């Protein structure tokens, strides 16, 4: 019996951090689906911070996300820090995907746009809560 050779899936895996939260994004070719812990990005809670989570899409345009699927796993911490880790993870994954599989020129445009708006979209904030001295 003949076996089929496994096809190589073009994908990248990136992470975003905020305090003790780690968000890992698995990005591959697809049809524009973004899921966070198995549910769509439209169901992000709290509602007020949803726009923070979709900031990379608003900045770069929905068309850049139309050809990729992203699955995000988030662990630890509170709601607000989750959102900041998610947005950083999404931005990093898109930059890595464009760098590896698309075009270097478009990758540079994406990076410049994100850094010009908010540097923490690409670079992790190392601050953590200090222990009390008592």
UniProtKB/TrEMBL annotation:
Ribosomal protein as UniProt keyword: yes
InterPro entries: Ribosomal_Su5_D2-typ_SF (IPR020568), Ribosomal_uS9 (IPR000754), Ribsml_uS5_D2-typ_fold_subgr (IPR014721)
This protein's record includes keyword Ribonucleoprotein: yes
A Pfam cross-reference name: Ribosomal_S9
Family matches, as Gene3D superfamilies: 3.30.230.10
Gene Ontology annotations of biological process type: maturation of SSU-rRNA from tricistronic rRNA transcript (SSU-rRNA, 5.8S rRNA, LSU-rRNA); translation
One GO cellular component term noted in the UniProt record for this chain: cytosolic small ribosomal subunit
MF-aspect GO terms: RNA binding; structural constituent of ribosome
Keywords for this protein: Ribonucleoprotein, Ribosomal protein
UniProt feature coiled coil, ranges: none
Family as reported in the entry's similarity comment: Belongs to the universal ribosomal protein uS9 family.
Name of the protein described by the UniProt record: 40S ribosomal protein S16
Species for this entry: Coptis chinensis
């Amino acid at each position: 019996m003949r076996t089929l050779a496994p096809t190589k899936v073009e994908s990248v895996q990136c992470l975003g951090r905020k305090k003790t939260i780690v968000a890992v994004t698995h990005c591959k070719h697809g049809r524009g689906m973004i899921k966070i812990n198995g549910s769509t990005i439209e169901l992000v809670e709290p509602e007020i911070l949803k726009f923070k989570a979709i900031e990379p899409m608003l900045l770069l345009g929905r068309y850049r996300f139309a050809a990729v699927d992203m699955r995000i796993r988030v662990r630890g911490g509170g709601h607000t820090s989750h959102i900041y880790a998610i947005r950083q993870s999404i931005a990093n994954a898109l930059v890595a995907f464009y760098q590896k599989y698309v075009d270097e020129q478009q990758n540079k445009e994406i990076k410049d746009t994100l850094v010009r708006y908010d540097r923490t979209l690409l670079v992790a904030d190392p601050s953590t809560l200090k222990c009390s001295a008592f």
